[in-house]
Amino acid sequence: MYKSEKGQYLVEFLPYIKEFYGNTFVIKYGGSAMINDELKMAFSKDIALLKLVGINPIIVHGGGNEIGDTLKKLDITTKFHKGLRITDEKTMEVVVMVLAGKVNKEIVLNINRFGGRAVGLSGVDASIIKAKKLLLEDVDLGLVGDVEEVNPDILVNLSKNGYIPVVSPIGFDDAGSRYNINADTVASSIAQALQAEKLIYISDVDGVLDTENKLISEIKIKDIDKMIGSVLTGGMIPKVISAKEAIENGVKKVHIINGKKQHAILEEIFTDAGIGTQIVR
Amino acid sequence: MYKSEKGQYLVEFLPYIKEFYGNTFVIKYGGSAMINDELKMAFSKDIALLKLVGINPIIVHGGGNEIGDTLKKLDITTKFHKGLRITDEKTMEVVVMVLAGKVNKEIVLNINRFGGRAVGLSGVDASIIKAKKLLLEDVDLGLVGDVEEVNPDILVNLSKNGYIPVVSPIGFDDAGSRYNINADTVASSIAQALQAEKLIYISDVDGVLDTENKLISEIKIKDIDKMIGSVLTGGMIPKVISAKEAIENGVKKVHIINGKKQHAILEEIFTDAGIGTQIVR
Amino acid sequence: MYKSEKGQYLVEFLPYIKEFYGNTFVIKYGGSAMINDELKMAFSKDIALLKLVGINPIIVHGGGNEIGDTLKKLDITTKFHKGLRITDEKTMEVVVMVLAGKVNKEIVLNINRFGGRAVGLSGVDASIIKAKKLLLEDVDLGLVGDVEEVNPDILVNLSKNGYIPVVSPIGFDDAGSRYNINADTVASSIAQALQAEKLIYISDVDGVLDTENKLISEIKIKDIDKMIGSVLTGGMIPKVISAKEAIENGVKKVHIINGKKQHAILEEIFTDAGIGTQIVR
Amino acid sequence: MYKSEKGQYLVEFLPYIKEFYGNTFVIKYGGSAMINDELKMAFSKDIALLKLVGINPIIVHGGGNEIGDTLKKLDITTKFHKGLRITDEKTMEVVVMVLAGKVNKEIVLNINRFGGRAVGLSGVDASIIKAKKLLLEDVDLGLVGDVEEVNPDILVNLSKNGYIPVVSPIGFDDAGSRYNINADTVASSIAQALQAEKLIYISDVDGVLDTENKLISEIKIKDIDKMIGSVLTGGMIPKVISAKEAIENGVKKVHIINGKKQHAILEEIFTDAGIGTQIVR
Amino acid sequence: MYKSEKGQYLVEFLPYIKEFYGNTFVIKYGGSAMINDELKMAFSKDIALLKLVGINPIIVHGGGNEIGDTLKKLDITTKFHKGLRITDEKTMEVVVMVLAGKVNKEIVLNINRFGGRAVGLSGVDASIIKAKKLLLEDVDLGLVGDVEEVNPDILVNLSKNGYIPVVSPIGFDDAGSRYNINADTVASSIAQALQAEKLIYISDVDGVLDTENKLISEIKIKDIDKMIGSVLTGGMIPKVISAKEAIENGVKKVHIINGKKQHAILEEIFTDAGIGTQIVR
Amino acid sequence: MYKSEKGQYLVEFLPYIKEFYGNTFVIKYGGSAMINDELKMAFSKDIALLKLVGINPIIVHGGGNEIGDTLKKLDITTKFHKGLRITDEKTMEVVVMVLAGKVNKEIVLNINRFGGRAVGLSGVDASIIKAKKLLLEDVDLGLVGDVEEVNPDILVNLSKNGYIPVVSPIGFDDAGSRYNINADTVASSIAQALQAEKLIYISDVDGVLDTENKLISEIKIKDIDKMIGSVLTGGMIPKVISAKEAIENGVKKVHIINGKKQHAILEEIFTDAGIGTQIVR
């Protein structure tokens, strides 16, 4: 019997589309997927598609390289402490320009080109992210902040009305200061505030790898503590810790996937096998 | 670069999903696609999927074979006039039982098994199809009817609330009679009343074939009259005439596709080439 | 002083109309009231009127005789076990045809003729009645089912939008089987799911009669157990037990009335004396 | 066959209730029906009932006798010109007290006692009736006014939310004056502003009588001009002229009925024969 | 730098407007502010303004002097017991006329002249204030009542739709009697039923004065009992007690201000210092 | 009589607040008002206040100086042609960073500090401003654009939900290019698309001055053509021409005011005299 191959592919997605209909996915977008042109286009299509099949994606983006490049062009030198950029007022101004201006608007434009209706916001807009200074014992990081409170009203409003919010990880406080906040943290906080079904980290690795460099498909949060220092090292540690916190606070599932693979996000969501590491209760 | 094959397939549907988002498709379901088990399952999945990606499908089904089978089992003999079954009251009762009972509920059950929320109705329910006796000069066809007026309120209400209406082609009149109406005609009338974007006839042939038996991909309604008697013959003539009437009254496009091909409806809708014949203004 | 006699009659209904405004009444329709033509018309008017004066009637119908008649015409013989028809797949097909096709659509048509906007559904439509096999120790009843779960969303939606749902007592399970369920049980389950104000059984007797054959106007549910075997016998026992269960699960009042009396339902609802037996907490 | 007499009466109203469902009726209430206690109770029940069966009644009341009585008790003497009370500021204050205070609140209280949710308003409230001085050539009538503009927003809002508006015929102008306006005129103006289905005048006579004192059941508006001076005399002339104006401006039908007959309004609305005179296009 | 003086004044109100946006204020209106023409205009403007800046004012008015004046003109003599007028049926009729007719409609007209959309109601309308006889041990006060239950639905409905309710302190009971109720009590009961942010008493004194006749700016409810008999005397005692009850039942703050001062209500609300006495938890 | 001075000031604004309630004002923000700290705070308060008193302000900002400063810091040199910066891709990137990043987010933060709920957008977000290349005969301006089409959906949605949109004048085209557009032009286009009641240009001059340097309070659009070259010179010419176009396309009134004066916008809106030049039909 003749069978439409394309139709066949499409109906294979049916159970997944049905399952996730009306769900909110918070997606941390960063790394190579935000740099390589082909990957940027693929990501934009993926997001536009998720919205059309009834999922509500909310994007939180990073922007590390771009900030460094612009600071360099402006001859502003900054110091780092344990990977965190010590941020004075002049640096902060550049952070805002790059994140909320350059990076955010490019993501928005790309998604819109594929039929999405993206709207770029920072944590300052509609007072989404109230922040506080990140306090370390030994050093003053300046305007590096942590999330104090998320006000997700506008994200809900925009999602409900068919828009795709794209959020820059900048916070504010009542004194009028703005803070540079880690994008993973912002994504996790927003996912918690929205009680999102999924929090997806798009990174530059396949996921969490075991000691033989093989991908671990699933991690239970109760096993995370003992994995720290063994299979979990470097930048993966804070990512997995914020994943754990998200799940403890109501997010259903966290995924870490490799943004270097085109359409990785669709393969992770719309197949049983998935492609990265998922972290569950 | 790694590229998710499945993801790639899915994003290819993006422009179509975007284009048809929120559209109403009236689908005449009949023939082999309603008999063969594998095709029935494929059709059910297709319809559930259309609903999930934002299209509002409305199904109108036929049921010719089933009616004949049941009449035969009940030892009721009927005569035909030019392909129309002369229908007395006793026969009409069987028509209603078979269409609104047997056939309709089976379609509903199958769609629901794949996550749709189908609701089976006849033209009597919520007074959807007001009918009148089909009058021929030479013969009294009994309770064979024609559509007088469509009241589509409940179809709109159900579609808007996430349900998939499945309609049996039975009409009523103010005197309390019920009429057996041709399903192609009912589908066309409902498509007109709803100003549907598409009216799709699922038949047992590939579409309209030319004199060399090659598929004609597109027919303009202005060319239909001169095609009658040449490429258009037999049962295809009333089908194409009701297609023409639909387009003249506001339906955007009519498709004739081969229900013997699995997922033909998805291939017709979600590819540029399509698979059958489309009739346009 | 001149006094409009008709007006006088109408205002006598005022306190009842006021009391029941916006209430949901689940009405089990069966027996002679569904067979005799004059009674059918009277019932249809009653239901149309209830809707117009602000009550939300939901009809659940039986169809015993019609099923037997059709099986006989089709030369299908079935056995009974304690009043329950052992139902194989072939028999089930006839049950669906007769209930959801013949009986349901006739009720719908009649109500609509008097200005109601009835919509006929089975428990399969919109997945209203999820069923399970009715398990007896000694015998396999085949596709005779019991209610597992009621999904009343569409009933609420239709009632709210001015329609009158008419439900055939057919259930489904996830494996795709359909079940023949006792209509009293379905009516009681739906009344519970909707937390209905009234559940009304239209039967062929005046109500529950005492040992001297006099009508008992009111029964408290705490007295039911001791009445079984004395005043409660035969088919009245399961009816009263399902009434008790309904009241224990939130239905306000259950009525058993004689459908052989024209407009019995109006007299029961709109007079203090009533006409049948009411069962209360 | 047993037939419930009460039920029978109720279903006789079915076609009328169906016909008028959701319609707006503006009812001018005055004369004996507003004085006699038994008639007052009957009227209140009638109005509460109309609301419950889906009609939106809006009451405009007069109050002639009560105004005269109170003026007399206060030793305020007034002159009349062609039946119109010449109204100075002091008199106007009494008019407002009697109409918006005494009469209005008594009507409201009575309707509420029978389960209606009446809300008393004057034309000053929510700026419903903007008025202008009624100018006569030969005499200054003081604060006797005519309707300049009706703002029916609050009447629509209250009706939609289940309330029954009861309106005193007092208008205002931008300079802060209040005007005493003929209640028939106000009822007609409101009926026009709401495009009401019916405007019903409750008077103290059976309707328009012919030269042999027999009731004329129906008058066409094209025949009104030639009836003036013959069958139409006295206070009936302005009443019929405002009826004509109402119909010319979109009101469907005007009724003149005898408020001395209990439940006359129900008999007029809910029977074919009616009881008074109806004026139609 | 040039600075717009008027603009400067306006922005000073910004924090207050922001704070009270969407809040409900119940305002007891009486005394000189209801008699003096200039004060009446100022009050009307104040109320219209409160509504426009997003506050929902609900007015409850008294009317003592006017009632006495009208009774006198009608030669009806009444006795007082501890400041309460012993009210027979004939007196009650005058109370209703004066409060719901004369006083209420004048307030409504004035507010509307400044662009408000006031709607005058009594406690009888929409059954807002169900009352009971105020029972004293030693004397029968007749139709003097106390609040039994407040049904605030219509007040919420009107406020939400942009109207300003103006309520006369008249109650009803199920037997059809009407009662004259103290306006302070009615205002407090409505404020409780609406869980109002503020209850504001407009009186003829600056507020509560201490033993040296100096204004007390703020009183905590825990201090009220010990103040009775010392700084609290005469008519101030019941006012402060109903204020205490209001706060104990959910009203945020009660204010007593001097209605003899023009725009006192604005000064109290829109400045930190305020102008009268506020009573708080 | 005591009169609250502050209250008096506030009620003077009553007629204006009433008049503009629910109106949309598009405000072009630029010049000194966007540079001086005191003026920035004053402007932020003004906007928060407008929103609270029921006006829907929509801000369009410029940013000329900031762009120049940043380009300079980055050692990017640009040429000008008749006041327009020739904009290559590298320059455009800086324009987006400065406008949508630095300037936009600072305005948003300041308004939010005074209780507004501002949301910063560019013309790229939600595809608000579709642009086309501004074509001059003699020179290629690069990515300097003109408005082709405004899609105001999100502005309406945000305004209706209590937010204050702040828009950067950047457009996009279907090929994915972004354009730098004159902020006066964008403000005028948005005002036309929204059929705004007012379009307000905040500039650095008092308004249009006559040949004796005296302010012209009002200009009719029919007089504009003959004023060009005489009283209208330099940058005022395009501003007044876009004002004329706005009024011809449905905007009610255009105002040019001096942003160097604190609260000029309030004085212009809330006083009869105003403070700048208004342009009317």
From TrEMBL, chains A, B, C, D, E, F:
Record's catalysed reaction(s): N-acetyl-L-glutamate + ATP = N-acetyl-L-glutamyl 5-phosphate + ADP
Keywords noted in UniProt: Amino-acid biosynthesis, Arginine biosynthesis, ATP-binding, Cytoplasm, Kinase, Nucleotide-binding, Transferase
GO molecular function: acetylglutamate kinase activity; ATP binding
CDD domains, alphabetized: AAK_NAGK-C (cd04250)
Subcellular compartments: Cytoplasm
Any one of the GO CC terms: cytoplasm
Superkingdom of the organism of origin: Bacteria
Pathway: Amino-acid biosynthesis; L-arginine biosynthesis; N(2)-acetyl-L-ornithine from L-glutamate: step 2/4
Site-annotated residues for Transition state stabilizer: 28, 239
Major localisation: cytoplasm
Domain Aspartate/glutamate/uridylate kinase residues, every copy: 23-258
PANTHER family: N-ACETYLGLUTAMATE SYNTHASE, N-ACETYLGLUTAMATE SYNTHASE, MITOCHONDRIAL
Family: Belongs to the acetylglutamate kinase family. ArgB subfamily.
Protein name (database record): Acetylglutamate kinase
Gene name of the record: argB
